[in-house]
Model the fold of this input.
Amino acid sequence: MSLEIRIVLVEPMYQGNIGSVARAMKNFGYTNLVLVNPCKLEGPARAMASHARDVLEGARVTSTLEEALEGANLLIGTTGIASLKTGEHIRLPLYTVRELKERLKGYSGTVAILFGREDNGFNNDELKSFDMLITVPTSEIYPVMNISHAVAVVLYELSALEGGNSPLAEGFDLQLLYGHLEELLEKINYPPHKKDKTSLMLRRIFGRAGLTPREVQTLRGVIRKIERKMGHAIEDENQKDENRKDENRKDEDLKVEDSGSMEKFI
Done:
């Protein structure tokens, strides 16, 4: 079993950057490159790839981000913009690449590391879909790196990463877990204005936990038991309401009977 690193470039705009990313990947021994809606790949891309043309030519091209992430166990987004407010959950928590490396030790599976557009990075919906976020510490004067430089730094830090025998949960099963959690929030009437942030926080908590397939199934089993228990509680409450209504009706009937007896007596 091994740990596979997949580099995903989302809508890269410049051929030179794509070629340079391929070169950086080969420098550190990586070959799994996926391009989402890239620009045309012609002479400039091949020139910048230099002796890494095999990585460039072997890159998988997709039209959607969903296609690019198929089969990935863990989704790691990169950002050069840190959130300074604890209430801004979209970009929190942020980890360095070294911290990510420590968390991935001993696991097996496919980890997709995503790099955003050169001009706008990732949109909020994309950021919310990631299990973890990493950043490369840079100067506050000019924090945003060229995409190929960022890829090179990330892969340098991960180049000695050793996988293991602990399998990461399938991405599909994680999505089922997240969906199950959202359903549970609905059922407990969780405040609507807090639901999105809470769902994102839960995704990040479980994302950085590196759940195994068995752990995911255990969590879903616990949620199902909670839902069943809630269902019984609702049924019990409904039965109590019915019993109370029956008692009230009996009291009313008794009052009517007592009233009739008094009238007869008088």
Q: What stands out?
A: Residues 213-265 form the longest helix (53 residues). The chain is about 55% helix and 15% strand.
